[in-house]
Amino acid sequence: MNITETTVQNGTHEALACILNDLRSTVSPQQYGAAALFAGTFYSRMNSDEFEARASKDWAALVAGFMEFASVRAQGQVSVRVFNPSLEQHGWESPHTVIQIVNQDMPFLVDSVGMVLANLGIGIHVLGHPVVRVQRDADGRAVAIGEDARDGTLESMMHVEINRQVGAVEFAQLDSQIHAVLDDVRACVADWKAMRERARESADYVSAAASPVSPQQVQEASAFMRWLADDHFTFLGYREYKVSPEKGDNLLLPVADSGLGLLRDDRRAGRPRSVSGLLEAMHAAGHAPDALILTKTNARSTVHRGGYMDYVGVLEFDANGRACGERRFIGLYTSSVYNQSTWHIPVVRERNEYVAEHSGLPKDGHSAKALRHILETLPRDELFQSNRNELYGTVMSVLSLQERIRPRLFVRRDRYGRFFSVLVYIPRDRHNTMARKRIEAMLMQALNGQRIDTTTQVGESPLAQLHMIVRPKAGAPESVDVASLERNLEEIVRDWHDTLRDQLVQRHGEAAGLDLAGRFARALPMGYIEEVSPELAAADVERLARLDAENDLSLQLYERGDADLRFKLYRFGQDISLSEALPLMENLGLRIRTEHPYVVHAGHDTIHIQDFEIEARSNVQVDSVRARFEDAFEAIWRGRAESDGFNRLILAGRLEWRQVAMLRGYAKYLLQVGVPFSQSYMEETLVRYPLLARLLVELFEARFHPEEDATKKAEGQANFRAELVALAGSDALAMRTLETVVAARTASRDAQMAATKKALRILLDQVESIDEDRILRKFEAAILATLRTSFYQSNKERSREVIAFKIDPAAVPESPKPHPYREIFVYGPRVEGTHLRFGAVARGGLRWSDRREDFRTEVLGLVKAQMVKNTVIVPEGAKGGFFVKRPPTDREAVQAEGIACYQLFIGSMLDITDNIVGGKIVPPEEVVRHDADDPYLVVAADKGTARFSDIANALSADCNFWLGDAFASGGSVGYSHKGMAITARGAWESVKRHFRALGRDSQSEDFTVVGIGDMSGDVFGNGMLLSRHI
Q1: In angstroms, rounded to a whole number, what is the distance separating the alpha carbons of residues 805 and 6?
Q2: Which whole-number Å values give the CA distances from 769 to 695, 724, 766, 772, in the listed order?
Q3: Which residues pair with 884 in a beta bridge?
């Protein structure tokens, strides 16, 4: 049959047709027919994508060269060549080194050659191994191939392309090792039938011969040998040994000409072995002698499959039951052995029955089924090599692991001292390459190993099973500290989650700790686990557990290593955007270097962790400022404090956020009274002089803190001194000055104020800038001009949102005139406002101002006009105004926010105003007064607040204020100015009526009037605008 036509007709790859076409120009016409047949067979099993690796003419040159190489091979020999192909010499080239092998076809060729290359660490890129029928003459020359070689034999043609090798040494090494391995393969294949027959003969021998072994064991041993011969063992070698007395001992010596397979060569017969040592090993741990020796050899297989070969020894006994010889088989259990039930394997099944019987478990019970499963899944080598007692101990221990998953290992030393067999069980989710390598390293060190082989079994069981065979060096330990190995194993497989769980249990007790671990440990994302230690994570989990409502927030300022400042945010629901966090952190004196965000999905809850790497503008002692900083950040983020440059004082001046809010409140007041400095300049000044800022706070506290108990005041003296020392640094003069301030903390209020003022005066003299000196002194003057404050009212939630300062404006230098009798300035992040009174008994309206920067100027202008009008009226004039700082965009929401701010403004004024109860003056709680009794506070409506009187009176009622609903005029229990036309327009309509009665038209005729008021905005002034003829 024409191979070319057949190939094309059958459609075997278009590329093959191209190769055959190029082959015509590569070989002579006389050779083409045979070459085409060879090429068709050689390339018949190639995939289409493999042809794309090189041009068809190169494939043609390759097959032509191979055919020439294979054309001569001596009977019973192997042909091997190793070369780097070149265009000049071979007609094709490759980036790889090529190995070509021609051998009589037989099993194990490809596997065995592959092992040679793997052992040398050489990678394979191309592997082709077609089988071609070849007919050769007496000289080994090919005379026919393929279908033409009807009287020929099958030959294996292997073409292998490997990592490129250079130099004759490498080529010679490959050639030598491949020849040696293929010689082994040939010997094994040639003798396998004879070896199998020896196994059957041994089965008969065991059954018939006298031995000290029990009848049951004899029966199992005989069945085992027949089972081996029934395609369950790849026989690689066989040899017989007889006991011979030598030098006072009985030695096992090889029987001449008994070797088969790998043991044909007497050099592979092994060293003489002492029978007494053999029997001693067999009797170890009280074990009676067996008819069989089942173990591993010390040599690794060169044929078919890598690994140490299996050793099956059949002992021969004399009439007295003494060992007198051995029939030794070496080879490999076939793959079917590892797939069939262990209850069907002779010898092994008897041991299984022993374990099951002695376990005492009910046969149909769950535990008995689990025990059978363990016996099925144990490594077959363990079942073959362990005696009954060893197997029983191992299986029962593994069974206990089903009830409590934990790492365990079992060490068994081969009774002949050749190796340690270690069974390792670890939780399946902990099994990975790194864990395996660490376990191997541990065993190699503990067992003085020189080589270790590991097989792994990972299935549906929650435990992964690793079977490790350790071949020790000389001097292996006689005993093994298994408890120590297991402790090390626990540390190796202990993962991040284990350590976190243990940390949580240690912190919270077992029940609570395990609950926290269950809720959060597996919810933490992989990026978090890789970055954060379990110890830090335990603290994080505690914070996460406290977050259970939308927008719940937790914070942590901490150091990670040297000079690595971090700030961590935990938020339920949504994260805080970087655009929000950046300016807030900048105003706190920190710069964000980078962010590590993590999302935790715990059940149905989503919690965000944001870990910021930050830099501080000044040196930060984390432990001393952590709580202040965290409280400040939350207060700012929740809107209870403003975000501006004053917040740098929290770190720079070691202040609480409310203390900073107090200083900010004074800055806002100074801006309203017209100081010639911007807020940013005032911020920079206080931050530049944090010690002076701290003393200003101390002056405020000395003046207004309600606590006067000397003992309680002394409690914080040490911390206060430490703060001042840190702020003063190396300034000796400052420290001497500050010592008096520290000492005064236990003295009277006046003494504390005097010491603080003195320290301020001394330190202010060191301020170089005149403007900065003026700024600092204005803060001092504003504090000293303050008569009362709501700052320390801990029993009122309102005082956490706004601060009310009752001030004597005349005591504030350079404040605009006329100076009111008293002023209450209210500061908060949502609202600012002021109320000016020109007498102890005064009234006037409160307006909703739209002038953020100068609402005090607006109010002062109004009250000046009122003072002119009220010259003959009692009480005196008063006016107030407030500004809404965060108005919403929605109109209805704006009104609601305005009312809320109005309530804060009114309520904070009431908080520091004296009350009258039972005819007696009752000062407000937690308010230090530096003025006389002052219970008279009334308000009225004005622009924007015409309908707010009931709101004000409701606040008055809540405070049990003595005026009740007389606190605010108008409203539901008073008179509505608009409703009753008590307005400028209403007054003018009355004037027009009087003029008509006099026969005058005030709208068209000029006239002269005399009235009380001015044009600054009171009723009289507004009325004058209603006629052009006045």
Answers
A1: 108
A2: 19, 23, 9, 5
A3: 831
Three-state SS for 144?
Answer: strand
Nearest Cα to Cα of residue 56 among 34, 26, 84, 77? 26
Q: Cα separations (Å) of 458 from 426, 429, 708?
A: 10, 10, 73
Q: Worst-scoring range by mean pLDDT, 54-58, 381-385, 967-971?
A: 967-971
Torsion of CA 883, 884, 889, 893, to 10 degrees: -120
Residue 510 and residue 503 in contact, taking contact as beta carbons nearer than 8 Å: no
The per-residue pLDDT for 283 is: 53
Contact 657, 631 (CB under 8 A): yes
H or E element at residue 557? strand 553-559
Phi, psi dihedral angles at 143 (to 5 degrees) = -115, -15
Averaged pLDDT of the chain = 89
User: 10 Å Cβ neighbour count for 982?
Assistant: 13
3-state per-residue secondary structure call for 524-550? CCHHHHHHCCHHHHHHHHHHHHCCCCC
Number of H helices, E strands in the chain: 36, 31
Q: Which of 324, 310, 236 is nearest to 278 (CA)?
A: 324
As a whole number of Å, the CA-based R_g of the chain is 50
Q: How far is CA 866 from CA 328, 395, 860, in A?
A: 124, 101, 10
Measured CA to CA, the distance from residue 611 to residue 569 in angstroms comes to 6
Rounded Cα gap, residues 795 and 582, in angstroms:
34
Q: Position of tokens 């503008």?
A: 617
Cβ atoms of 845 and 939 within 8 Å: the answer is yes
Catalytic center residues: 879
Residue linked to tokens 């005696």: 387
Residue-wise DSSP of 363-383? TTSHHHHHHHHHHHHS-HHHH
Q: Is the pLDDT of residue 70 over 60?
A: yes
**Could you tell me how far CA 473 lies from the centroid of its own chain?**
42
CB 314 within 8 A of CB 327: yes
CB-neighbour burial class of residue 398 (10 A; exposed 0-12, middle 13-18, buried 19+): buried
- Taking Cα atoms as reference points, which of 239, 308, 593, 686 lies closest to residue 470? 308
Buried b vs exposed e over 101-137: b needs ≥16 C-beta within 10 Å?
bbbbeeebbeebbebbbeeeebeeeeebebebbbbbe
As given in the structure block, the two tokens for residue 152 are 């020929």
Question: Beta strands 420-427 and 408-413: pairing type?
Answer: antiparallel
What DSSP assignment string belongs to 1000-1030? --TTTS------S--TTTSHHHHHHTT-S--
Secondary structure (DSSP) of 891-923 = HHHHHHHHHHHHHHHHHHHHHTS-EEETTEEEP
Q: What is the C-alpha to C-alpha distance for residues 58 and 52, in angstroms, rounded to an integer?
A: 11
> For residue 834, which phi and psi values (nearest 5 degrees)?
-145, 150
CB 978 within 8 A of CB 949: no
C-alpha 242/C-alpha 409 separation (Å) is 39
pLDDT, tens digit, 9 for 90 and up, residues 996-1020: 888 888 888 888 877 766 665 566 6
> Do residues 128 and 99 lie in contact, with contact meaning Cβ atoms separated by under 8 Å?
no
Q: pLDDT for 516-527, tens place per residue?
A: 999 999 999 999
